[in-house]
Amino acid sequence: MIRLCNNDEIEEVHRIINDAATAYKGHIPDDRYHEPYMTIDELNIEINDGVVLWVYEEEKKIKGVMGIQDKNEVSLIRHAYVRTHQRNSGIGTKLLAHLMELTEKPILIGTWAAADWAIRFYKKNGFELVASDEKVNLLKKYWNIPERQIETSVVLVNNAWERIKGGVQPYGNHI
Fold first, then answer.
1. What is the pTM assigned to this prediction?
2. Cα 131 to Cα 34: distance, rounded to the nearest angstrom
């Protein structure tokens, strides 16, 4: 079942995020990875900034989380994580499909350039990488992240992006 995250579940969601984020260790730049990957205070700041978290629950246990954030003309997918032992079971796909149904706005997703598994997942679900210069513009406009993270990230967009952009120049299959 997919449902909104309750306030009393934030600590459990926080544990899921940090469990799943261990996949980044050894892949993303060492200066960007730290433990915990996200503190509870950072998560609460994200929620207060408008990230609405949805959870996938099975047998009364939260197995995955994904957030959506309204940014006026676009929506961002934020903090998409599935428990390590539940990966590749369709939970991420179900959460993403649900969030995509919540908006008709173009959806943008930022992730680490080195997270090739995440990029494959989003491409499999209909998203395309944007060119490097467009990536920088989008990350600066819609996210509040440090310059180093901009350098080491990518942005993917769904086909609704073309409606407001007038056509995006895909980066292609290169990561």
1. 0.91
2. 28
